[in-house]
Amino acid sequence: MRILIVEDESRSREFLIKGLRESGFAVDGAEDGDEGLSLAEEVDHDLIVLDVMLPGKTGWQVLEKLRALGRETPVLFLTARDAIEDRVRGLELGADDYLVKPFAWVEFLARVRALLRRGPVKQMESSGIADLELDLRRMKAKRGKNVIDLTAKEFQLLSLLVRRTGEVLSRTTIAELVWDMNFSTESNAVDVAMGRLRRKVDEPFERKLIHTQRGLGYVLEDRDED
């Protein structure tokens, strides 16, 4: 089985490569996000071990690109970022596991073997609610027969709402998961983006799906009244 290690810290990368090779795996290494993405696209790996904070493309961006391309290779995030928001974001983007540094080698190896036994988990190709349908592979959205023209960020925002249908998402959560930024109470960036999205997804249609939960955030659900 072949594993790709994407890690910019040379000692850590060589340690992982050496340990996995001694455990019987074929291993490729990359020192930044761009090289890692290129190798992941060119070579058929059974598992990708991915740091988050990388030169070039971040681990978030590498994973997002791979999933957008329909690549279902299992991904294990291995990173010093231990905040709950980081773990949630990794899993939301399609990661299969998340291990925080520093770690015990035996636990790392156990997680690697568990992911390899499981194999690729097929990502959903489509999702939706009521007459709203998302094509997750092609990043397309439509309501009924009407195609909705969304930017990449608007699609990411809408897909987050769809995946969490019925759950009220705070502005802080939305900012962290979609823009990878800390939300300032003085900023209206999330409200502005949500306003643009609602004008495209809801305004032209009688039935509204995106609702404001006053004082809490936003929720996507099919209901009779806002």
TrEMBL record:
GO terms, molecular function: phosphorelay response regulator activity; transcription cis-regulatory region binding
Residues the record lists as 4-aspartylphosphate modifications: D51
One Gene Ontology cellular component annotation held by this UniProt entry: protein-DNA complex
All residue ranges annotated as the Response regulatory domain in the record: 2-116
Pfam families referenced in this protein's UniProt entry, alphabetically: Response_reg, Trans_reg_C
Superkingdom as given in the UniProt entry: Bacteria
Protein name: Response regulator
Organism: Phragmitibacter flavus
